[in-house]
Amino acid sequence: MPIVAPNTKSYVSVLKLRTQEVYEKYCTYDPPHMAAFGAELRDSAHASQCLALAIHHLSVRSQTAFPVHGQIVQMLVDIFSQVKTAARKAEDIEPVFRKIHAHDIMRLEEPRKGFAGEQMWNIRLGQQTDGGGIKNRPSVLLAVSAYIAKVYGENYAPEHMMQVYREYCDLAESINNFSGCIRLIHDRTNDIEPVEQAITDAVSQVLVSLEAAGSEAAKLMPVFRRLHAADLKKHEAPRKGVAGEARWDA
Could you tell me which residues come within 8 angstroms of residue 35 by beta carbon, excluding any fewer than 6 positions away? Predict the structure, then answer.
């Protein structure tokens, strides 16, 4: 029987696919009021942690299961650390937001004389929110990002190293897809939402770390190609064709 090699060009990064979905869904979300936007600020840290956990899983699998050079593993650890730093910086957003906008938040969560009374201070007459505060309100970003953390979990079982190679190649784009969501939040604080500059600055710090992680991840593919040049050549330019090269299979 003829030897059939896997169609390596058909492989796609599962993390890239998932983060693309997250960005596309989040692009369409328009928070109806500040209570809803406050939930997005609050959970930007948890959403960032989902991305960090995915990269952590990839680094562990690369260390324990995938036949890759140790330098690749170390680069993944460094990228994970940068995303984790972004998540830690995102944790600073909510306390700053609650401190600076304490009076605004009080009106939503502890309305004086109930909402009927508090509404008398509204810019527009009548009720403008759904009556809920920020504390227990679900975040759309976290809802669409939660499954990112499980991308490289127990169900991720690549059969071929070229599948794993595609994850490395597209890791920068995957990170940039997620950071695009944080940039949407950042731009809203600049252009739409009535928040103080300190909130915009806090979100900016998260973006800086995510963009640094994306820049570092962009180095993965050229380093991988250099360290695994002989392995890649077997698949990209098989000697005596696939049937010939397959005779060297382990």
Answer: 108, 129, 130, 132, 133, 134, 137
User: Taking a C-beta distance cutoff of 8 angstroms, is the pair 109, 133 a contact?
Assistant: yes
Q: Of the candidates 99, 102, 108, 97, which has an alpha carbon nearest to the alpha carbon of residue 136?
A: 108
Picking from 40-49, 91-100, 204-213, 228-237, which range would have the lowest pLDDT averaged per residue?
228-237
pTM above 0.85, yes or no: yes
Report the alpha-carbon distance of residue 207 to residue 190 in Å, rounded: 14
Q: In a 3-state reduction of DSSP, which class is residue 87?
A: helix
Q: How many of the other CB atoms lie within 10 Å of CB of 207?
A: 18
Gap between the Cα atoms of 204 and 210, Å rounded: 10
